[in-house]
Amino acid sequence: MPLRINVRMLLAAGLIVLLTAGGLLFVAVRGAAANTPVDKKLSFTCPFPLIGLQKLDVHIKADFEVPTAPGGTLSTSGLTITVTVPDKAARGLNLVGAGTIEGTAAAGVTLVNGDAKPFPVRIPLTVAKTDLPPSGSFSTVATGSVPTVTLAKPGKTTLTVGDFTTRLTPKKADGTFTGIGAFTSDCVLDPGQDAVLLSFDLGSTPTGRQYSVAGKTGVKALGATAPLTGGFDLSATSATVFTGGPVFDKAHTDFRLFGFLPGTADLEFVADGPQGGDFAGTGFVARPRFTTVLPLVTLIGMPVSSGPGCKTSAPSTAELRTGDGFTLAAGGELTGTYALAPLTGCGAFTSALGTFVQGEGNTFDLVLTPR
């Protein structure tokens, strides 16, 4: 009977060590700077019946980035959590016939974003099934899905370690239970360590940006594309709103009317009123408003319309969204769609030209490069 009690106590200790370490590592990966690799060790203490308090070191590796403006999210990649379980725990598990261990953990952290109230976050973690050696220490790797956290407020932002709840189930080699059930326990971070895993100032207003633009526009009704070049100037007016937008150089496209009549068209996108948009995550959504001018249109080499009066009868508004991986500092992809209204001022061919130009589903596919 005493032997059975001691085995249970040793096993519980091993479970506590493994799961608590996994939970701590999972949280710690949130605490690096933008686009910075993390390779860090922290220690915590768990109560071990019979053998007393034991300290465990855990190893964290990950890459993560923080948002550049309020409204963005914390993101993490390459998370690797390695936990080394001591020999005493391994021997205790073997004494009850355990051949593998597996389980879960819930790590508690507190997020403070600017002047917002502290926000508690519970982070789930899965400890993969791990084979146990007959004796000696062993390592296990913990993984999980990091929850997306949106930072809405400007100012100092911190993420601090809180409580850790751990639960693990030992099983025999054939997958059956050992009869001692699953253990749940809490552990604490060792004193004297900095419990703040992440600390940075989230700017209240992003800086202005200037980009070179390259890409193309597609006119659906005409079945043609035109290469585009130009610029994009962005000036923040608040933490979430900016003014400015794309300014395109004159574009040119070749097309075939009815599939066989060769034609050409010059295109100009002329801004109509104030331009701007909203910051979103690490990028933005722009809503440029413009009139499309066709200063020259030819068919079979002959001009059928010329002059700046040939244009859409109403302005278009595009919704341009930055793509995955876009940052204000590095630029990236910007895409969107727009509609073209009927034409006006194109002379005798106004109605005919309008039939082959107007309509929805026109596209912008652009790449923004910082100047």
From TrEMBL:
Domain annotation DUF6801: ranges: 43-197
Pfam families: DUF6801 (PF20611)
InterPro entries reported in the protein's UniProt record: DUF6801
Domain of life (superkingdom): Bacteria
The protein, known as: DUF6801 domain-containing protein
Gene source species: Amycolatopsis coloradensis
